[in-house]
Structure formats: structure tokens, C-alpha cells
Amino acid sequence: MLRRASTARNFPVLEKVAGGRRNAERGQDKRAIGVVLLEWSLMVAGYYILYLSVNGIVTMMDPVKKDRGAGVQTKEALGKKADRSEIARLDLSPYERIIANEVLDAEQLEGGFDTIGGLEQQKREIFELAVLPLKRPDLFNKRGKLLGSPKGILFYGAPGTGKTMLAKAIARESGAAFINLRMSTLTNKYFGESNKLVSAVFSLANKLAPTIIFIDEIESFLRVRGRGDDAPWISLKAEFMTLWDGILTESAVPIMVLGASNRPYDLDPAILRRLPRQFEIPLPDPKQRAEILRLLLKEEHVDYESVKLGALAAETEGYSGSDLKELCRAAVMMPVRDVMYLPAGGSLTALDVDGLQAEHLRQVTMEDLRNAMKRVKPTGHAAQDYERRESAHAEHTAHISPAFMNTALSLLLQSLVQGHVPQVPGAAHGQAGGDGRSNGRSV
User: Fold this and answer.
1) 86-280 and 286-341+358-386 have identical folds
2) Which family is this protein grouped under (predicted)?
3) CA-CA distance, 66 to 395, in Å (whole number)?
4) Where are the domains of the chain?
5) Strand pairing of 177-180 and 103-104?
6) pTM value?
7) Which end of the chain has the smaller Cβ count within 10 Å, N or C?
8) Is residue 296 within 8 Å of 320, Cβ to Cβ?
9) Which one-letter DSSP state was computed for residue 190?
10) Could you give the C-alpha distances from 307 to 296, 375, 388, in angstroms and in order?
């Protein structure tokens, strides 16, 4: 009995020991599970970091990914227009989507031939030569291969004469898609990518036909080839001309390349051959300048009792259409300047800009236009005048005779040897600075 009681008393101790062992085993199991979960978490995190790294490297190595996304947005925006809804349904390559960034719908181009002052003869010939065949290719193709638009037209002349406006007017009047091709779009640091972009220009133009490919300042891209040209640049030009020849042989495809240049003599002869029709766009004569001024001022608040467009046109010799636009812009600013008159020494922040109303502005007068002429000069006039003044100043200040230079150098060497500064002959006669007297002190 006594032994049984003793054993019974020891059971709680044994139970506690067994429970402790079970708790320890459970703790070990939990720690093991925690270690496994930690290892799995680290492995998953490592794989995710590896995925991000590889994806980032691939993205950086893809030279057209960013531009492709912008091209998709451009395609969708163009596709919303009713008359060019087929663009959204086109199957475009990644490179064609990049070129799609350069596409302007014809409805986005402001104004047609009626908004261009002067150039009546050029406008009529260009309309017959380019607009009609692009607008009705079916009609012209039925009459043979010769009765169609040329595949290349060159506009050349002084800056600001309306070359770009003519190109946009052709697209506007014909309803053609307008690819405003910039050379920065074609250049790519990755080898071979530029050639693919050039190919995409013509393949996209074929899908959007009728299409105008416009290249402003074309001589900067297709100038005369020389031995100093880089191999990639030569390859790019060759690719462009080869594909251009392709559209030349396909007369039924309504695609036209328009070039504008201020320096046509810098163009490669092979390019000039592909631009068979060339139009000089000269500076406007007095009659054309009057017409340009009329178009520019027709929506402005002008006092036509004082403004004589004929007289103003006669006084603006040498002004281009762009110069006349800036002149009119400066003139219509004169009434604003009168209302916002600021006395000498006044603070610009004190002007009551918010209180200015359009009805407070007076009409533009002839005096305003003449004052604007003092501010706006013909293109390059101010720069040329500054260059003349600077050249005259440099020639006046730097005029030193060779004999005087030889004497001055000889005496300088002598002074270094003898240790004193001698008198320079002729200095007293204004050929050198100073009063012509030696100070006689040693150096």
C-alpha cells in the first residue's frame, strides 16, 4: 500500500516531464517549419529580383519599346477621326508604330492654298501636278502611267517664304496622310535599327496611301556624299534611296516625297534625280506682300482708314512671309502696350494685367505698323548688321602694321636681355598705347 501510494504521488511529475518533452518537440517542429518558410521566402524573393533584373536588362536592350507605346497611342488617336478610321484597324509593325508618331492627319493641317498669300503661278501648277492625282488616283491611273503625280517635288528658296505651308496645303487639299519625317526619328544608336525605321517609313506610307512624306531641310539628311561620311550614315542614305526607287516604279501607289531646302546646291545629285519637279519659292513682290498682309490682318482690329496695305507693301522690301507675320504680330501688340503703359522706373509687378479687357484696346493704325518695322527686320538683317559692325570694330582695333610688330618684338627681346623697358619707336604716333616716354626704371 505504501509503495502504491508513493508511485501514485510520482505520476504528476512523470506527466510534467512527458508534457515538457512534447512541448519541446512541438517547438522544434515550429522552428523547422519557420526555417523552411524562410528559405522558401528567400528563394521566391531571389527569383523575383532575378526576374526584375532580367526584365530591366531586356527593356534597356530593346531600342524601340518606349517609342512603340507612343506609336500605339498615336494610331488610336488618328483612328478616332472619321475620315481616317481605317488607321485603327491597320496591323502595324513595331517600327511602323514609331513612324506613326510623325503622322499628321490631313484635318489637323491648318489652311489650304487660299491661306497662302501670293505664289499664284506656283500654287496653280502644284495643284494640277500634285493635288489632283493624289485626290483622284483612280481617275489618273486609267489614262496611262505618265498621267500621274511625280514621286518627288522639291521646294527651295529663302527662309520663311512658305515652303512648309505649301507642303501642308497639298496634304490638306488632297486629303492625303502627312508624314512629317524628322531625321532624329530615323537615327538610332543600335546597329541596323535606323535601316529598319527607314523601311517602316515607306511601308507605313503604302498602308496609309495616299501619303505625303515631307522632309524639311532635306539637305541636312541627303546632302552630297563624300569620303568622310560614316558607314552607317552611307548605309542609311542608300536604304532610303533604294526604297524611294521602289515607289518610283509603282506608279499606281499614290505616295509622294516632298522636300524643302534653303540650300538646294548641297543636295546629292542622286536625290535631285528623284525630285524631278523643283519649284523656287522666292521672296514676295509688292503685290504678293500686300496680299499676305491682307490675309494676316483680316481677323484683327485694324483701322483701315489709316492703314494702306499697298504703301506698307512697298516699304517692306526684302521681307518674307514669315517676316511679315512677325511684323503684324508686333504691330497688334502696340495697342496692348499703350494700355499697359509703364512709366520709367516703374515695377512690372505693379501692372494691372487682370483688369485688362479686349474692348479697351484701340485699333491698329499705320503708325503701329511702321513702328513695328523698326523692331522687326527682314530675316538675317539684324545678324548681318551685327556681323558688319563687329568686323569693322575688330578691323579698327586690331590694325597694327607689320613693321611696327617686328620693331616691337625686337625691342621686347632686347629688354629681356638688358633688363630694362626701352621706348618703342612710333608709339608716340598712336601705333601703341602709352605716352611714348620710357620710365627709365629697370625691371
Assistant:
1) no
2) Belongs to the AAA ATPase family.
3) 54
4) 86-280, 286-341+358-386
5) antiparallel
6) 0.68
7) N
8) no
9) S
10) 13, 18, 34
Query: What backbone torsions phi and psi does residue 398 show, to the nearest 5 degrees?
Result: -105, 15
CATH architecture of the domain 286-341+358-386 equals Orthogonal Bundle (1.10)
DSSP string computed for 398-426: T---HHHHHHHHHHHHHHHHHTB-PPPTT
- The one-digit pLDDT tens for each residue of the chain (443 residues) are 445 545 545 555 555 555 566 666 666 666 777 777 888 888 888 888 888 877 777 666 555 555 555 555 555 555 554 355 666 677 788 888 888 888 876 566 777 888 888 888 889 999 988 888 888 877 777 766 667 778 899 999 988 888 988 998 888 888 888 899 988 888 877 777 888 899 999 998 888 888 899 999 998 888 887 766 777 788 888 888 888 888 765 666 788 899 999 999 999 888 999 899 999 999 999 999 999 999 999 988 899 889 999 999 999 998 999 999 999 999 999 888 887 765 555 555 555 666 667 677 889 999 999 999 999 988 766 555 655 666 666 666 656 666 767 777 777 777 777 765 555 455 444 444 444 444 444 43
Per CATH, which fold does 86-280 belong to?
A: Rossmann fold (3.40.50)
